[in-house]
């Protein structure tokens, strides 16, 4: 099968690999029918994910059809259409029982697919702990509608949930990339008083204004003054930092009102500074870390009922055998790209 493979820092390569096999009774083999590229894949390529293992197949955003299951798999069966969770989790350890599945103590726990074990930018993928890592797609939901459930939508849903958004809040979201838009959609479910999106790209600002006209938009250089002018207590009640740029962490806490919650979703290329003397007296609560992707059934229900629609994010599509061109487009933000869909291998 074709599989896009992490060779070394700065180099991925499309290679032929064997079709994966069941290794554990809790595994499933999924034929990938639609995938995507995540910014986290670029972090691996750039060497910003030290735990990533050279030689693995990359990719962790995908949907597909179950081909085979291990003897202990109960929740899915061959023929089921499924989303694949970015997190691998056993469901039985201390962290899983408390809902912190990103910190699962299993050797394959947390972000494993496409990082420490073979992922899904391939024709097939082996999913450990399939009863937890796979969610059946409702019949009225297309692959395109379900594509982002297991990663960026799960991230946005988790970020909005732990931010404790109320109807009185001004919510600021820093970054209008794919994860930022998913976070925006999930924040909207909580019906806050207002949402402000901070974004530097003119193309992405146009996208937000076109699709979500009730959302306020500002650029980073204007953000502090804009948020103060459009909030009740000198800053945003909730700030969700999704961008991960060199200066967006500082921007997040500066735009927060005293006693606000600042939720950091972003993955940074460099260490960030926490200047406690400068923020003394703001009494901020910071919430950080990787997504705990344990709400996928709820997300799929919301998609099925028409409450979440991420299909406008898919701006480009390439077959698996043209994935290198897909990466070039996505990495360089060409042609107004937001997300690319990777379809099945195109055969002569």
Automatic annotation (TrEMBL):
Keyword Oxidoreductase (UniProt): yes
InterPro entries assigned to the protein according to its UniProt record, in alphabetical order: ADH-like_C (IPR013149), ADH-like_N (IPR013154), ADH_Zn_CS (IPR002328), GroES-like_sf (IPR011032), NAD(P)-bd_dom_sf (IPR036291)
Pfam annotation, one family: ADH_N
Family statement drawn from the similarity comment of this UniProt entry: Belongs to the zinc-containing alcohol dehydrogenase family.
Molecular function terms from GO: oxidoreductase activity; zinc ion binding
Name by which UniProt lists this protein: Molecular chaperone GroES
Every Alcohol dehydrogenase-like C-terminal domain range: 178-287
Domain Alcohol dehydrogenase-like N-terminal: 26-131
Cofactor names: Zn(2+)
Chain coiled-coil ranges: none
Sorted UniProt keywords: Metal-binding, Oxidoreductase, Zinc
Keyword Oxidoreductase found: yes
Highest taxon of source: Bacteria
């Amino acid at each position: 099968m074709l599989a896009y493979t992490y060779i070394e820092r700065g180099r991925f390569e499309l290679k032929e690999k064997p079709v994966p096999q069941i290794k554990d009774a809790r595994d499933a083999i999924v034929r990938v029918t639609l995938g995507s590229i995540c910014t986290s894949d670029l972090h691996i390529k750039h060497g910003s994910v030290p735990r990533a293992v050279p030689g693995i197949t990359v990719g962790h955003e995908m949907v597909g059809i179950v081909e085979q299951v291990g003897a202990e798999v109960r929740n899915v069966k061959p023929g089921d259409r499924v989303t694949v969770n970015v997190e691998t989790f056993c469901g039985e350890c201390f962290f899983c029982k408390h809902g912190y599945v990103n910190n699962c103590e299993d050797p394959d726990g947390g972000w494993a697919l496409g990082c420490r074990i073979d992922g899904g930018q391939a024709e097939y993928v082996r999913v450990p702990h399939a009863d937890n890592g796979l969610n059946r797609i409702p019949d009225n939901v297309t692959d395109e509608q379900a594509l982002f459930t297991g990663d960026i939508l799960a991230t946005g849903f988790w970020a909005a949930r732990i931010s404790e958004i109320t109807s009185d809040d001004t919510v600021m979201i820093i970054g209008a990339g794919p994860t930022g838009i998913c976070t925006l959609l999930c924040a909207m479910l909580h019906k806050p008083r207002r949402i402000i999106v901070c974004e530097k790209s003119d193309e992405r600002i146009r996208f937000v204004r076109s699709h979500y006209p009730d959302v306020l938009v500002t650029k980073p250089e204007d953000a502090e003054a804009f948020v103060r002018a459009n909030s009740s207590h000198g800053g945003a009640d909730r700030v969700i930092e999704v961008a991960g740029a060199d200066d967006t962490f500082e921007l997040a806490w500066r735009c927060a009102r005293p006693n606000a919650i600042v939720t950091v979703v972003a993955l940074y290329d460099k260490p960030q500074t926490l200047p406690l003397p400068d923020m003394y007296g703001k009494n901020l609560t910071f919430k950080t870390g990787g997504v705990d992707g344990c709400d996928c059934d709820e997300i799929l229900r919301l998609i099925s009922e028409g409450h979440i629609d991420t299909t406008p994010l898919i701006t480009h599509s390439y077959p698996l055998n043209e994935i290198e061109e897909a990466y070039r487009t996505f990495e360089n933000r060409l042609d107004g790209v937001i997300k690319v869909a990777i379809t099945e291998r195109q055969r002569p």
